[in-house]
Amino acid sequence: MGNHFIPLHDDVELLTIHGEMSGKISDKLSYNGHASLYKYTLTMNDFAWNKPDWDAQLGLKYNLRNKIIAGVQLTGTGKRKLMVSNAEISIPPTEIVFNMPAHLNLNLSAEYRYSKILSFWTKFNNISYNRYYEWAYYPSQRFQYMLGFTYSL
């Protein structure tokens, strides 16, 4: 089918500039965020395939009496370049390069702490229903819902 990955080896110098910040706005409301910028210097390839030039996250959490914790989070990934090679099915072999734009996701979360050892949580990821590709021809799940519990002794 041709739907497999082939590793491309290269020597790379990676410069990462990363920053994080978190704090409290009030007794019940807190924020957190982080961002990273990336600079790739390669010897053989033109691009660092499928690697973004930046990524970031910004979130707010509301704590209601240490029982209910609600959160909203905005995540973003910078533009990337993806390559697809059809060397197995095409003569002469060709390579297709995709320019993937930056994308943003909006996520919601909630947690109910029943006791100190048991809590129930839910997450709604990508509620903006944004369509993007993790890899070439491999789309994201769009809207994702998770439900779970945490038990610790």
Description:
By secondary structure, the chain is mainly beta. It has one domain (12-151). Helix content is 0%, strand content 60%. It has no helices and 11 strands. The protein has strands at 12-24, 29-42, 54-64, 68-77, 80-85, 95-100, 103-113, 118-125, 133-135, 138-139, 144-151. The strands form 3 sheets. The protein has a 7-stranded antiparallel sheet, with no helix packed on it. It has a two-stranded antiparallel sheet with strand order 5-6. Strands 9-10 form a two-stranded antiparallel ribbon. A hairpin with a 4-residue loop joins strand 7 (103-113) and strand 8. The chain starts with 11 loop residues before the first strand and ends with a strand. The model has no long low-confidence stretch (mean pLDDT 88).
Secondary structure elements and their pairing?
Elements: E1 12-24, E2 29-42, E3 54-64, E4 68-77, E5 80-85, E6 95-100, E7 103-113, E8 118-125, E9 133-135, E10 138-139, E11 144-151
Antiparallel strand pairs: 1-2, 2-3, 3-4, 4-7, 5-6, 7-8, 8-11, 9-10
Keywords, separated by commas or semicolons:
single chain, 153 residues, mainly beta, seven-stranded antiparallel sheet, two-stranded antiparallel ribbon, 11 strands, 60% strand
